[in-house]
């Protein structure tokens, strides 16, 4: 049974129609395009203006409007819309946080597209024998959605249909279901993130000795289990560069690919771009320097990193002189990379407990100082300080990205003031009593001028 669209068209649906009208006006005149234009009677407009408010908000957050517009212009779609309670109260809070994190935008898109089938399915299409359908989710192309009837109830995957043919439009149908459908790919990504968050830092005991000339182990390290911390310090694994160890050293994760550092670095850079306000930082990592590649190699070898990411407003204050020196962008970025895994909570707890905390950076031998200020963490000193502005932009257990509102520079060590030269006083040699008596006797006869010691 069809249900009417609630009330007048909402502002969201009107804005969506305005966007479509603008897009259509920019396209060249084509009869096929004209016939496929989306109007107010589209199933997408009905979804945005329906009582499935939680689903429509997620579709907007996932930036799927253009994707769904392209889908309905090519074919009818059937949308299986979970009830609001399934997304608002019944969903695991940890899983919901995972979906709403900017770095997991792709997972959210795959989850929502998994609820949409590129076919027009009416209520009379359910049979006792399961019918398998593909969804609009490309990452779950191999995972089919079964539709069948059981004890007189319509079932979609693992969810019961509570309102079939809820909204019917010329280009699609919306069916109400009782719970969320979760594809295996999204479930695996969530489990991987959760297991990485549970990974704790391990302090190695009896670290092997490193040859200072070659920056290699003096004797081969014992075999390390998968995922164990690397044997060499991170500084010895850095690529050649100014003030850095010259020889890249293999860690236990490198040849065995226990960690996919390249994908993780690409993931956090995409997160910076989706988060907004950190485009300059991403541009320096990818285009101006090779730091993104180097960070990916370090993470693949088992190292962990915390990135203090200055926002665009802070990066805009950099002068040409600060960036014109050879290697200046790299040195600036190295000072914002901490070779340990820290979150906003761990850093704040540290400064609250210990006052000032010094963190090593990849710009040897400089350290960055952190302290508690105004209920947050402040890095640096004086005018060159920066506050923790956007905490935990990206945290996956190997890479942590913390947004700050300033660019940090190391405090240059000032030379100790030179002491004023002390006037050298030369004292005359002192004569003894016997010599004094001899000089007097010679003076009496006028012969003392022959002896310089008597003058």
From TrEMBL:
SUPFAM superfamilies from the xrefs? FAS1 domain
Q: Which Pfam family, giving just one, matches this sequence?
A: Fasciclin
Alphabetically sorted, this entry's keywords are: Glycoprotein, Proteoglycan, Repeat, Secreted, Signal
Q: Name one GO cellular component term.
A: extracellular region
Primary location recorded for the protein, binned into one broad class? secreted
> Can you give the residue ranges of the FAS1 domain?
39-181, 265-393
Ranges annotated as biased composition (Pro residues): 222-232, 243-253
Q: Where is the signal peptide?
A: 1-26
Q: Which InterPro entries match?
A: FAS1_dom_sf, FAS1_domain, FLA15/16/17/18
Gene3D superfamilies documented for this protein: FAS1 domain (2.30.180.10)
Protein localization = Secreted
Q: Where is this region: Disordered?
A: 203-261
Function, in words: May be a cell surface adhesion protein.
Similarity comment: family membership: Belongs to the fasciclin-like AGP family.
For this entry, the protein name equals Fasciclin-like arabinogalactan protein 17
